[in-house]
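User: Second chain of the day. Same drill as before.
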Amino acid sequence: FINDHLEDRSEDPFFAYVALGSVHYPHSPPTKYSDGSPIAGEYPTAHMDLLLELDKVVGSLVSLVERKGISNETIIIFSSDNGGLKWDSNFFHHSSGPLRGSKGQIYEGGHRVPLIIRYDGVYPTNEKRSNLVGLNDIFSTICDIIGIDVPDGSAQDSVSFAHYIRASNNTSGLRSTLSNWDYSKGTLQSEAVRFGHLKLIRHFGAGTGTDELYDLASDLSETKNLIDNVDYADIISEMASKAKEVGPCPDNVKGPIVFSTGREVTCGYFRTNTIKRCARWRIEGELYCNKICGRFKKMCKNIRASTSNNEIEQEAPTVIPT
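Assistant: Same format as last time:
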């Protein structure tokens, strides 16, 4: 693709999304790589052989960009969409390292992933960053880098960190919280929210256990639950409110909602001609009048019932997008 593009449309930008299935079952590594070098049988397990193939594919792509002389105008992003496989002695290694949990779980091993960005001549090399970012932030970040506006209604929860890549002291405007969720068969089992180095986990599924609070600065493996420590009572309440606000079951906002057209309404607007109006203002209805327009009414009803003592309604925004 890159060769053809540079030959036929060298003046146009290109975007290549390369999704490698190296960690997914079945683990079936090829005998050889495209250059003839061996893959299968090079490591103790087929899974590790596939990681070798991943290294080779990434290396080939980066080398191609360098050979074509376009590394100074190409942004290379390497990441993963979820945590590693669960511990299995047959794998001869723990893909999540010291992190608790594995792919799909609410703990750090389920969703904390590597993120490496290279942009020769623009971004510094051999530096690290430590602020919270999510893969959802890459949308706004790329738009920021190439100088285009995020389209209206797109990337609702994306926060650019382009300026932060350039220099670690450029921290203004970065996200201060980050949430994730654990679903099973379409039902929310747990949710988590980060406030800096503190992480609150709330469980909703039957038999999932008590809520949890961890200080990841001193307990990266999430082994010391601080939920009953009274010193954290206020921040726990604040974190729980934030988790609800950005989760699938936010409360209806109080006060007026102002559409971008200038029209001002309350959630009562959606109680008449509900289907039509919720469809017309889908994002607004879902975010700010969720009890009326939300997609997961049955699930949310059960969750609200289990947390009714802690419900806090959010304030309405002044202006919301179309």
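Confidence is low (pLDDT under 50) at residues 309-322.

User: Great, on to the next one.
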